[in-house]
Amino acid sequence: MKLAITLQKGEVFQHFGHSKAFKIYSIENNRVVSSEEVPTNGSGHGALAGFLKEKGVEALICGGIGGGAKTALAEAGIKVYGGVSGNADERAAEFVSGNLQYNPDVSCSHHESEHSGSGSNGHNCSHEHTCSSGHSCHS
């Protein structure tokens, strides 16, 4: 199977839709046999589900993720393990051993409620905000 982790400087990146790279791990017989860093080449948000599906990914570890992206990943047959932070390689090892701590209900609610409008009433994704899991979506 293939596992993807949102990646920034070796850590789990905290905003799925803005991921510039993933680390994709090949797992056989309950162990990581290889891994590679793969740039998204500008793909974002919902397009990332298709990007990961093309790479043969079956599971994703990430920090924050919006409802639309979760739906797109589910439709692509990719299981999401959200609300995760820390070193990507360590989280991959925890996933393989069955010890990964994650939040199955993680969501970045700003996607559902704050992207409408403009100016001071609208939401700009470059601004700092927090997700329901208590971490910052941007690092």
Helix vs. strand class: alpha/beta
- Average pLDDT score: 81
Largest sheet: 6 strands, mixed
Gap from first CA to last CA:
29 Å
The low-confidence parts are 110-139
Q: What general outline do the C-alpha atoms trace?
A: globular
Helix count equals 4
* CATH superfamily (homologous) name: Dinitrogenase iron-molybdenum cofactor biosynthesis domain
Q: How much of the sequence is in beta strands?
A: 15-25%
Radius of gyration: 15 Å
Q: Looking at CATH, which topology would you report? A: Nucleotidyltransferase, domain 5
* CATH first level: Alpha Beta
- Roughly what percent helix? 10-25%
Short précis:
The chain has 139 residues and is α/β, with parallel strands linked by helices. Helices cover 22% and strands 23% of the residues. The longest helix has 10 residues.
Question: What would you note in describing this structure?
Answer:
Strands 1, 2, 3, 4, 5 and 6 form a 6-stranded mixed beta sheet that branches. Mean pLDDT is 81; it is low at 110-139. This protein has one domain: 2-Layer Sandwich (Nucleotidyltransferase, domain 5), CATH 3.30.420.130. Helices cover 22% and strands 23% of the residues. It is of the alpha/beta class and 139 residues long.
Write the layout of secondary structure elements.
Blueprint: E1 2-8, E2 11-12, E3 21-28, E4 31-39, H1 47-54, E5 59-61, H2 67-75, E6 79-81, H3 88-97, H4 110-113
Parallel strand pairs: 1-5, 5-6
Antiparallel strand pairs: 1-2, 1-3, 3-4
